[in-house]
């Protein structure tokens, strides 16, 4: 009996450095779950070419950010023996396929992208009036189909990105034959955590709690978080349903224990400071081991780099097979 061929998953992150709790709960935790299920062949990559679309004026931080981010990946549970972990720019075939796909992708598809319009309006600190930013979805499509992914894990709010990839695949196949399968969006639960200022946790807002934060830093950041604005005094009844700290704390507790904490808040048996301390304790308990392991990896960057080189070599072998097929399909196979 032969082993069943596993369906392939491909996903990546831009190298932004330290991951915060929202990054872990929104994406990385799902990657680890998919890897651990044993049902898929997983490819996870550092999208450093994508970083160039907005950070081209200063690329000095990209390599260190990559090492830091992958240290968090490994510390959290991504296993280079069970997942292929690689650097996008180390695989020249990403750029080659991107160029070929750009020839068959209508300009209007890119200009109509909701994400493109939104980011053009909201990103003001950097000059993004370049071709690379407009063509971002084409490179994203190349990233996915180069490995003939069956699924791409995304939140439902990102489903339009995968649909554009599917449209590009259909157009390419229409011209050159059935080379690529159409990848499917694998919708995953995406938890949005509040930051210390009440907005969505984000590095750009400066409101994030990071996986590598020490216990002291976590306690200080939890102390800064916003609680029930209507509760003025310790003896006032609380409204946990309107409190960021209470809502975030529930995530780390069983329903029974969370309900008891909420009841204590409502009846002023505990104060906001007590709830912040309890939240900090829960964060430290859940992520403390990840922080310790990530610091160890950062202290040994050669270990991280070696893992990336091995993963990139595995990915390159798959990419070369695909590109040989693509070159034959477009009648440009000169080798």
Q: How many domains in all?
A: 2
List SSEs in N-to-C order.
Answer: EHEHHEHHHHHEHEHHHHH
- Amino-to-carboxy terminus distance: 37 Å
Q: Helix segment count?
A: 14
Question: Could you explain the architecture of this structure?
Answer:
The protein has 335 residues and is mainly alpha-helical. The chain is built from 14 helices and five strands. The mean pLDDT is 91. Helix 9 (159-176) links the parallel strand 4 and strand 5 (184-187). The two termini are 37 Å apart. Strands 1-2-3 form a three-stranded parallel beta sheet. Strands 4-5 form a two-stranded parallel ribbon. The protein has two domains: 7-193 and 301-329, 3-Layer(aba) Sandwich (Rossmann fold), CATH 3.40.50; 212-295, Tyrosyl-Transfer RNA Synthetase.
Quick structural gist:
With 335 residues, the chain is mostly helical. The protein has helices at residues 21-37, 48-55, 62-76, 92-104, 107-111, 114-122, 131-134, 136-145, 159-176, 215-224, 244-250, 255-266, 272-298, 301-329, and strands spanning 7-13, 40-46, 83-87, 151-154, 184-187.
């Amino acid at each position: 009996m032969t082993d069943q061929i596993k369906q392939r998953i491909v996903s990546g992150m831009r190298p932004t450095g330290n991951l915060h709790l929202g990054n872990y709960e929104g994406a990385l935790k799902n990657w680890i779950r998919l890897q651990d299920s044993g049902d898929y062949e997983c490819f996870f990559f550092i999208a450093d070419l994508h970083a160039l679309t907005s950070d081209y004026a200063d690329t000095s931080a990209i390599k260190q950010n990559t090492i830091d981010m992958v240290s968090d990946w490994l510390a959290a549970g991504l296993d280079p023996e069970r997942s292929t972990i690689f650097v996008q720019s180390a695989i020249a075939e990403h750029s080659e396929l991107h160029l070929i796909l750009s020839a068959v992708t209508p300009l209007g598809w890119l200009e109509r992208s909701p994400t493109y319009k939104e980011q053009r309006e909201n990103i003001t600190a950097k000059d993004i009036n370049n071709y690379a930013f407009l063509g971002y979805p084409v490179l994203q499509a190349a990233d996915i189909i180069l490995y003939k992914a069956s699924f791409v894990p995304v939140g439902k709010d990102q489903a339009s990105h995968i649909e554009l990839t599917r449209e590009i695949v259909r157009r390419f196949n229409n011209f050159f034959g059935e080379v690529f399968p159409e990848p499917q969006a694998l919708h995953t639960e995406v938890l949005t955590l509040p930051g210390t200022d009440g907005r969505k946790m984000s590095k750009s807002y400066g409101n994030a709690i990071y996986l590598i934060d020490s216990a002291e830093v976590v306690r200080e950041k939890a102390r800064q978080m916003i609680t029930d604005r209507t509760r003025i005094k310790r003896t006032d009844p609380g409204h946990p349903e309107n409190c960021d700290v209470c809502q975030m704390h529930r995530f780390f507790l069983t329903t029974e224990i969370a309900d008891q904490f909420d009841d204590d808040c409502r009846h002023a048996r505990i104060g906001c400071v007590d709830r912040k301390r309890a939240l900090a304790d829960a964060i430290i308990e859940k992520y403390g081991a990840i922080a310790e392991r990530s610091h160890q990896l950062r202290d040994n960057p050669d270990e991280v780099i070696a893992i990336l080189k091995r993963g990139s070599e595995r990915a390159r072998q798959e990419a070369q097979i695909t590109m040989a097929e693509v070159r034959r399909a477009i009648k440009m196979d000169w080798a």
